[in-house]
Amino acid sequence: MALVIPCLAPAADLDAARQREITHLVRQDCGSCHGMTLAGGLGLPLRPEALRDKPRESLVATILYGRPGTAMPPWAPFLSEAEAEWVVDMLLKGKF
Q1: Does 3 reside within a domain?
Q2: Based on CB atoms within 10 Å of each CB, which residue in 1, 68, 69, 88 is the most buried?
Q3: How many domains in the chain?
Q4: Which structural domain, as residue segments, surrounds residue 31?
Q5: Is residue 68 within a helix (H) or strand (E), and if so which, with residue range?
Q6: 63 alpha-carbon distance from chain centroid
Q7: pLDDT tops 70 at residue 43
Q8: In this structure, is residue 1 part of a structural domain?
Q9: pLDDT surpassing 60 at residue 12
Q10: Could you report the per-residue pLDDT of 58-85, keeping only the tens digit for each?
Q11: Quick check: is 9 in a domain?
């Protein structure tokens, strides 16, 4: 008897055009607070060494829903959960 577990498409399934759009968003919009090299600014650093001990799910939630009471806005109007997961994966790999 096989166990079938439904799942969402992996974040890596984003098409190349959407990946470019999101990369631009991260560099420009996130970079405006987190620093153009994501090494920190008004916002905390988003480099792999700064994120490695943070739960992936928490990082995804922060991207999607922001941080009330801080300058971190919610990006859910612009990014799907799969796209936010892709952003976290790329941040953890230092790909931006």
Answers
A1: no
A2: 88
A3: 1
A4: 15-93
A5: none
A6: 6
A7: yes
A8: no
A9: no
A10: 999 999 999 999 999 999 999 999 999 9
A11: no
Considering the domain boundaries, does residue 62 fall inside one? yes
Q: Which pTM was predicted? A: 0.85
Task: Note whether 11 and 83 are within 8 A (CB).
Answer: yes
Residue 86 has a CB neighbour count (10 Å cut-off) of 23
Q: Which tokens is 34 given?
A: 């987190």
- Chain length of the chain: 96
What are the helix (H) ranges across the chain?
A: 16-25, 31-34, 48-51, 56-65, 81-93
Distance of CA 39 to the CA centre of its chain: 15
Cα 59 from chain centroid (whole Å): 7
Residue 76: what pLDDT? 98
- What CATH number did the domain enclosing 35 receive? 1.10.760.10
CA distances from 81 to 41, 42, 60 (A): 26, 25, 7
The span from the CA of 73 to the CA of 70, in Å, is 8
- How far is Cα 82 from Cα 67, in angstroms, rounded to an integer? 19
Q: Check pLDDT > 80 for residue 94.
A: yes
